[in-house]
Amino acid sequence: MKKIKIQVFLLLSIVLVLAACGRPSGGSSSEDGDEKYKINIAYLVSEEQSTHLAAVDFKEQLEKESDGRLQVELHPNGSLYGSDREAIEAVQLGNVEMTIPALAAVSSFNQNFMVFDLPFLFDDKEAAYRTLDGEVGQELLAELDDKGLKGLAYAENGFRHITNNKGPVEKPEDLKGLKLRTMESPLQTDSFKEYGANASPFAFGELYTALQQGTYDAMENPISLIYTNKFYEVQNYLTLSNHFYAPTILAMNKDFFDGLPEDLQVLVEKASEDYRDSQRKLATEQDAEWIELIKEEGMQVNELTEEQLEVFKEASEPIYEKYRDKIGGDLMDRAIESSKN
Known about the structure:
Structural class: alpha/beta
Radius of gyration: 22 Å
CATH topology: D-Maltodextrin-Binding Protein, domain 2
Order of helices and strands: HEEHEHEHHHEEHEHEHEEHHEHHH
Helix content: 40-55%
Distance between the termini: 74 Å
CATH architecture: 3-Layer(aba) Sandwich
Number of domains: 1
Oligomer: single chain
Strand content: 15-25%
Shape: globular
CATH superfamily: Bacterial extracellular solute-binding protein, family 7
């Protein structure tokens, strides 16, 4: 009987150890008795882009206002994970505490987020902020709880534009037959197929080489990524099309967030809102500066007129119809209404 009790005790001990190994990293005790929590943040962009610059302030705010109980380590340049999808999955599993991916990648985990992938949904940034920070955007953030993620706030990469090596893009027909790289978003890929391009998703970290070698003729990206990744070296034409608005999202492992003391949870949420506001402002300033530098680097830049934009918007109507059932008509209508009011 005693032997059986010992075996049961040993078995329970092993189970508890294995269970602990599967949890995201939590607090560690310090000499002064305060629990310390480490937050690793993984993202793809470089150190000069607004996402990273705002993340530096985010790190400093968390560490200072928590009196060192929160310790933050930044991992830019895709140094931990080569794609947004990989980083999101790592956060879900607790292998890393936080990531700042492009929101389009999140639609792979919750297809309701595809509503923000709709082409020409937002006429300007104010319309995007109104929708993302309002009821529609906040309801979708809450839905990430079921995916093991804590959605904290939306920031941005900005409006996306078309680049290619064939000539200026002024109408959908100019894209016909071009091998065009898109993000890993079925809706965005289908949009460019609707315009006539031979569109497909491809890993961002390998995109420069793919354009250089002619694997792709064209792509679409925000100004910040075109400049910081030197795509102007391998693309000749830039069309300021504003076809998609590209938010980013601050996402944390849900179990890790729930395991923080309440005062640190409040601090993380407040710091995330501060990050959102400062990053958006910085991104807008960088876009204005970098578009001029892109021109100086030799890219030929054209901006779509209102009439040309209307042609693209009309060409996008089949996408709205195709995805209405997948996204949900009510959600789509609410997003459209919010963007206009």
